[in-house]
Amino acid sequence: MDALRVEDTSMGLMKALHFITTQHQRRKVKPKFQYASVGSTTRATRCLTKFERSHITELVQQLTVLDPKTQQDQVKEIMQQISKLPVAFFPVKREMRIDYSKTYPYRSTKRCG
Questions:
Q1: Tens digits of per-residue pLDDT, 11-45?
Q2: In angstroms, rounded to a whole number, what is the distance separating the alpha carbons of residues 28 and 100?
């Protein structure tokens, strides 16, 4: 007899219920990274010509120089020009490693370690 073979449906139901009840008791995996929003970037929605690419980079460089709080009308005007072009904005996130290491592994901090 094979030990992994289920003999009847009641045994299969019991195993399924046991799996469901013990599922929340499993070890939680610690996240290794933390993500923070940095801003956005542009990506072409189709293959661009050389002229389109240079025009888009000029507009984006003008946008980076402007302050959106004080020069809102200029930003709006440039964004309208960019929206006519085959470009989409995508969010960019910075990946930061979470450090779980101890300060000194052989000595506790209570004992000046």
A1: 888 888 888 887 766 677 889 999 999 988 888 89
A2: 15
Distance in angstroms (rounded) separating the CA atoms of residues 98 and 113: 22
Q: How far is CA 20 from the centre of its chain?
A: 29
Which token pair is 98?
């979470």
The amino acid sitting at 55 is: H
pTM (two decimals): 0.50
Q: Which tokens go with 47?
A: 């293959």
**Residue 96 corresponds to which tokens in the numbers above?**
């930061």
End-to-end alpha carbon distance in the chain:
57
Do 59 and 81 meet the contact criterion of CB atoms below 8 Å apart?
yes
- Classified as helix, coil or strand, 41 is strand
Query: Please, what is the angle between helix 50-65 and helix 72-83, to 10°?
Result: 160
